[in-house]
Amino acid sequence: VGKDPLTGLHNRHSCDVVLASLIQRVKQKNTSFAVAMGDVDFFKYVNDTYGHLFGDEVLSKIAGIINANLNGRGIAGRFGGDEFYIFTNNIKDEEDLRILLTTMRKELQYAFDSRIEDFGVTLSVGVSLFPKDGTDYEELFRKADKCLYLAKEKGRNRFIIYNESKHGSLENNSKHIHKILDLSEHSEYMSGVVSDMILDLVSR
User: Fold this and answer.
1) I need a labelling partner for 108 at 20 to 30 A (CA). Which of 29, 69, 85, 138 fits?
2) Looking at 82, 145, 182, 196, which residue is catalytic?
3) What are the backbone angles phi and psi of residue 55, rounded to the nearest 5°?
């Protein structure tokens, strides 16, 4: 299995192999899993302002946060640059997935607070679900990628789980994205608020 030398996560080739194998296994078991694609918000600014060594530290920290929160419930990979991928095959339901992603987002947001004066390190994530959103590698990645783009459009530092009724089909041109978002922004925001409340209650 190929590893990314900086983060210790699966590299791109390894991710491709693992996901193809995972799809075959879950098809046989009639179960589901999630594909999450994420990248660091304004990572070029982080590198340019604080240096590439600090940028590498950010990437390594993200990898550690992802692995700690997955805790055996899936695998994570880095495709290069600031792009990360997560495949979860032991998440109970979508609410559990939301809590997992919210925890990762909040831990990363506060990880470098004392080191960066003008902004925190944040992550935008797009998610698709097998088999609801697709049953092959390419379709799942394309839908997760669309949601990652929408997360960036909506202000970054958030995750979006694909829902065709909210986000449109893959054929929708990007110029229509703002129209698609009008009706979905409130429900997506409220889902994040609920997840944050659950995490606060659990921590107390």
Assistant:
1) 138
2) 82
3) -60, -45
